[in-house]
Amino acid sequence: MPAKTAKELKRRRRDLARAIGADGVLIVPAAREVTRNRDVHYPFRQSSDFAWLTGFPEPDAVAVLAPKHKEGELVLFCRPRDPEREVWDGYRFGTEGAVEHFDADAAHPLAELDEKLPELLADRERVYYPLGVDADFDLKVMGWLRAVRGKARKGVSAPTELVTSDALLHERRLIKSKRELATMRRAAGISAAAHRRLMQTCRPGLGEQQLEATFLHACAERGARFQAYPPIVGGGANACVLHYVENADTLRDGDLVLVDAGCELDGYASDITRTFPVNGRFTAPQRTLYELVLAAQRAAIAAVKPGKRWDAPHKAALKVLTRGLVDLGLIEGSRDDVPQLIKDEKYKPFYMHRTGHWLGMDVHDVGSYKQDGKWRPLAPGMVLTVEPGLYVAPDAEAPAEYRGIGIRIEDDVLVTADGHEVLSRDVPKDVEAIERLMAAGGPESAPATTPQSHREP
Ligand code: GLY
Ligand code: MN
Ligand code: MN
User: Fold this and answer.
1) Ligand 1 pocket mutation, candidates 229, 232, 243, criterion most atoms within 8 A of CB
2) Is 232 a domain residue?
3) Is the C-beta atom of 271 inside 6 A of ligand 1?
4) Given 3-state DSSP classes, what are the helix, strand and coil percentages for the chain, each rounded to the nearest 5?
5) Which of 173, 192, 225 is the last residue before a domain boundary?
6) What is the pLDDT of residues 64-120, one digit of tens each?
7) Ligand 1: distance of its center to the CA of 134 in Å?
8) Quick one: 156 and 225 in the same domain?
9) What's the domain range around 147?
């Protein structure tokens, strides 16, 4: 782990330890390996909470933060070194590595969890852990509590309060440090380059799957091997299915294509959507709806600044979209009716999701959206997406020229001290800029045929 990262993690734990106090204890489990089929696993992804707290990359581990404990504040349980297994499955840090490289004050093999955990819970009043997230882990915690209670006659007192660790960890994760922001800038930059490459190589006859492949390749060759979520590549009316991930159709001349894709870099997500014409030129109705979504997105981004409430961007987008839908005849009424039309959610048949979410280690990142029943104010260091859209389903009650058009434009936006910074600004979104980039083409073009599925011999 780089020295600066190690220092930051130590600072986090010190701050957490102060918040928990000497009468509390925090337990955070790592992610587990999950079987995909028979003896093949899904690619392992560490739990974001666990990574944020420890930086330890291996599965199945458990971290305990016990402020002022005699054994030390951070105790890690992990897989022990095992030269024979390591020949097959790769290097393990083991307990020695957990202490040496991850600043654990003590580390024990996983086999000692049931013996050691009750000792760490002894004489503490509160246990913080991710309550109700993993039923198996809930059971384990209950077992450890039972074991501490079993020692009552020896004068050991057992915790009386179980507290979910969400608020403790997630409110801190919501505010990103300089180092985290540098990583998020790089993640957004890589995804932006990959989106630009799609604009440069797209043409009629390509498969949605080929755009997906180009995106994955462009990210991977820049160092981002994993995606923050499965890419959505929807040509034509497929764009009206919000989480379309089949990516199995051929892209048609005259259609738009919506690409919602973002890489993960060093554990941090990016999340970008662009919608552009398959053949490089917007038709008049496509351009009309596109420019409406773009105006809504710009208005929403303008509402991102410290002190504005979480829903300010959403409200700004709704105002622009609803007025535009009235002007185009997709919603009945006049401009004077817009406030009431918004109250009545008349935009819902064409815009059914909200305008964004927190972004960080998780694509839909943690942190509450409300405080004391009100949308919380934005503050420097928060990162959110701004992603309005319009989706006119093929069977929608709408003029024929708009049916089957789905558009979303999504950027990643950091709240700064005096406004905002668009982390994903390097992908064009103006009609002219997109058409110019698409006309210029790129150095690399994908084959013009849709890949055939093939079977192993
Ligand atoms: N890519 C998922 C989302 O935009 O929320
Ligand atoms: Mn998003
Ligand atoms: Mn997205």
Assistant:
1) 229
2) yes
3) yes
4) 40, 20, 40
5) 173
6) 999 999 988 999 999 999 999 999 989 999 999 999 999 999 999 999 999 999 999
7) 24
8) no
9) 3-173
Same domain flag for 192 and 105: no
Residue 123 and residue 179 share a domain: no
448 within domain boundaries: no
From 8, 255, 260, 311, the catalytic residue: 260
Q: Is 260 a catalytic residue?
A: yes
Q: Are strands 226-227 and 263-265 parallel, antiparallel or unpaired?
A: antiparallel
Q: Say how many Å lie between the CA of residue 228 and the centre of ligand 1.
A: 9
Question: d(Cα 281, Cα 259) in Å, to the nearest integer?
Answer: 17
- At 415, list the tokens: 């709240």
Distance of CA 332 to the CA centre of its chain: 37
Based on the structure, what is the number of domains in the chain?
2
Name the helix (H) or strand (E) containing 133.
none
**Are 423 and 389 contained in the same domain?**
yes
Q: From the CB of 387, is ligand 1 less than 6 Å away?
A: yes
CATH number at residue 62: 3.40.350.10
pLDDT tens digits for range 112-165: 999 999 999 999 999 999 999 999 999 999 999 999 999 988 999 999 999 999
Q: Are 167 and 400 in contact (CB under 8 A)?
A: no
Residues 127 and 235 both lie in one domain: no
Q: pLDDT per residue over 292-343, tens digit each?
A: 999 999 999 999 999 999 999 999 999 999 999 999 999 999 999 999 999 9
Instruction: Indicate whether 12 belongs to any domain.
Output: yes
Residue count (the chain): 457
Catalytic residue among 243, 336, 372, 456: 243
The Cα 258–Cα 406 span in angstroms is: 7
